[in-house]
Amino acid sequence: MKTFFYLQRNDRRAIMATLIVLTVAVGLTIYIGDEGQTASTTQADSTATAPNRNQGNGGGQQAVAYYDTGGRRAELFPFDPNTADSTQLLRLGLAPWQVRNIYKYRAAGGIYRQPRDFARLYGLTAGQYRRLEPYIRISDDYRPAAEAYPAEPRPAYVRDTTRYPLKLKPGQHVALNTADTALLKRVPGIGSGFARAIVRYRERLGGFYSTAQLMEIGNFPQSALPYFTADPSLCRKLNVNRLTLSQLRRHPYIGFYQAKTIIDHRRLHGPLRSLDDLRLYKDFPPETIERLRHYIEF
Q1: Which end of the chain is more exposed for a tag (fewer CB within 10 A), N or C?
Q2: Spatial separation of the C-alpha atoms in residues 200 and 30, rounded to whole Å
């Protein structure tokens, strides 16, 4: 018998390994079967006893509403989706993955400001929302601050007429030889820069005899000319028989050679009696003499 059942060492090891694997497999099968039977028994007991715990309002407790969520009954109660924890959300019948989406939305800074915002929950059906909507309570702390603290009415706008003067309407005019910069800025197209330029050029000329003289200012807007009037009688006169060369040159219409010609004529021929005395000089063409008539006296 010993010779008949004799096995070599390698054969004995293989048989022992096979026996161990079979023993472990049988033990796991028996364990898993017992756990499944226990869980089924516990669930059946819970389902059988759940209706008895919530029937009527015996003992002074308020009745709780439920709705079918496909195999389990969900409890309906007032809740705030901004503060409800996972336990409350699961009691409402929401799926665990929906609860996780609510937590992610809140962690990212999302806020449910009104009940209809909760309808955007991914996977929430229209039927579920209709059942949950009457129980949604949004705390005032999550309302938009603009609704809780409305803006105060703004005061009536008062125009700063110093910086932004009211512009003239068509048909209104400004006296070019007497207006200050504030009045000049009321002309459409005239700002602070052009107003100062008009005053400086008026001082150099001695006054404007025509509104067309404004075009001698660089880049002056021609559209502003109809709003001005010029009074030639207010132009300041220059006595060409008394002024020196440097004084004559200060006028915009008298250059260096023109001033020198006047001085030479006075030295050689005596005082000027008329602008016609200068017609024979090449530095005084007819158009220059006509411009100077409003500013020269003898």
Answers
A1: N
A2: 112
Q: What is the pLDDT of residues 190-235, one digit of tens each?
A: 999 999 999 999 999 999 999 999 999 999 999 999 999 999 999 9
Least confident of 69-73, 174-178, 227-231: 69-73
Give me the residue label for tokens 């008026």.
202
Written in H, E and C, the secondary structure of the chain is: CCCCCCCCHHHHHHHHHHHHHHHHHHHHHHHHHHHHHHHHHHHHHHHHHHHHHCCCCHHHCCCCEEEECCCCEEEECCECCCCCCHHHHHHCCCCHHHHHHHHHHHHCCCCCCCHHHHHHCCCCCHHHHHHHHHHECCCHHHCCHHHHCCCCCCCCCCCCCCCCCCCCCCCCCEECCCCCHHHHCCCCCCCHHHHHHHHHHHHHHCCCCCHHHHHHCCCCCHHHHHHEECCHHHCCCEECCCCCHHHHHCCCCCCHHHHHHHHHHHHHHCCCCCHHHHCCCCCCCHHHHHHHCCCEEC
Measured CA to CA, the distance from residue 246 to residue 249 in angstroms comes to 5
Strands 238-239 and 228-229: unpaired
Q: Each residue of 21-51: pLDDT tens digit?
A: 888 888 788 877 666 565 555 554 544 444 4
**CA of residue 241 relative to chain centroid, distance:** 68
The answer to whether 297 and 236 are in contact (CB under 8 A) is no
pLDDT at residue 12, rounded to an integer: 76
